[in-house]
Amino acid sequence: MSQKSSARSARPDDRRYTESHEWVKPDGDTVLVGITDFAINELCNGNEGDLVYCDLPEAGRALDQGETFGEIESVKAVSDLYAPVAGEVVETNAAIEDHLEILSKDPWNQGWLVRIRPNSKDLPKLMDAASYEQFLAEKKH
Amino acid sequence: MEAWRLVVTWGADPAFNMGLDEALLEAEEAPPTLRLYSWSPDTLSLGYFQSLADVPGREQARALVRRITGGGAIHHVRELTFSIAARLDHPLYRGATRESYQRVHSALADALRAAGVDAVPRGATTLESDRSGTGMCFHASTPLDLAWDGRKGVGTAQRRRRGRVLHHGSIKIGGSALETGVATLPGGPTPAELGELVVAAFAARFELAFQRAVPEPAERVRARELGARYLDPDFVAAR
């Protein structure tokens, strides 16, 4: 793991998180977007073979914040993926569609899904790692 | 007792059936809803990501749609079709997807026992109904699928969207030429008779009070708006 993790959190603190379990990580003038280990566990419960399809957008697509940018199917559930920021898709992770096991093995680095050029330099207010941990803890009750 | 809505629409057309399910998935203000339905004409539904070419028997059904839920193709004939629309934080659906299947299937197994069969999760074994190359849901099985007499008899799949879930499923009553070798129910109950057992099982296991209702006017309008897409050749052949 190359990124720093906070002492309080098992999840990387170099990015922000949404309540729908996407993460967004600044990378130059773009951001990388993926889904969290929690989302992946909800879908496949530790069995990486349960992830069967992932549809990602073409480069060039404009997205509003919160808009569906893709879909992922595990054995038995199709779930939408939501854009954490508004912007233009400049790249998708081509490896994912054929190798969904990457998402289980490394959701934080190799498992990024899309690279977006945000419309605004100021990213929307999203949860940091500690807040996301707290959000997950409250979800359990 | 938790209040649930029960929506029953027998013999509706395929576009309305699919459109209403999606409208119920969208209905954020609605109470948790169990819907029981059947199809006219008999219809083949493809799984959301399924390739049309992977279902060689598709022309044997009188209508063809693509679902928004995943999995394999289902021939909707001589079966009870159901859907559940609820929030993802509802106790039935909270947590791992797999656990939500276990909970829902436990109630379906209760209903099937009342119908005279010993329905149990398939587990690690394979089934006599497993076939390769048909693309049919009932010819493929996973450990959570309910089976009796060594054959798959219930197929269910979920769509999760914006904090809500649509859990769609079919319980086979009789066979179909497209679904040879699957489990069937003795005595051939009607979908309505089997539906009563399903409602009773959910009510008892999860302490639910069902209130039978027709879909809200806005839901019916939305069902027609959404339904057209399911028959659209571009959508059906999209994969």
What does this structure look like?
The complex is a heterodimer of chains A (141) and B (239). Chain A has 4 helices and 9 strands. Chain A is an alpha+beta fold. Chain A starts with 15 loop residues before the first strand and ends with a helix. Helices cover 21% and strands 32% of the residues of chain A. Chain A has a single domain, classed as Beta Barrel (OB fold (Dihydrolipoamide Acetyltransferase, E2P)), CATH 2.40.50.100. In chain A, the strands form 2 sheets. Chain A has a 6-stranded antiparallel sheet with strand order 1-2-3-9-8-5. In chain A, strands 4-6-7 form a 3-stranded antiparallel sheet. Chain A is globular, with a radius of gyration of 14 Å. In chain B, 28% of the residues lie in helices and 28% in strands. Chain B has helices spanning 14-26, 97-114, 191-206, 217-231, 233-236, and strands spanning 2-12, 33-39, 43-46, 63-66, 74-76, 79-87, 120-121, 146-148, 151-152, 154-161, 164-172, 208-212. In chain B, the strands form 3 sheets. A 6-stranded mixed sheet of chain B has the order 10-11-6-2-1-12, with helices on both faces. Chain B has a 3-stranded mixed sheet with strand order 4-3-5, with helices on one face. In chain B, helix 1 (14-26) packs across helix 4 (217-231) and helix 2 packs across helix 3 (191-206). Chain B is globular. Chain B starts with a strand and ends with a helix. Classes of the chains: A alpha+beta (141), B alpha/beta (239). The A-B interface holds A 20, 41-45, 52-53, 55, 71, 73-80, 139 and B 48-49, 68-71, 89, 94-99, 101, 142, 144, 156-163. Strand 7 (77-82) of chain A pairs parallel with strand 10 of chain B, so a sheet runs across the interface.
Keywords:
heterodimer, A: 141 residues, alpha+beta, 6-stranded antiparallel beta sheet, 3-stranded antiparallel beta sheet, 21% helix, disordered N terminus, B: 239 residues, BirA Bifunctional Protein, domain 2, 28% strand
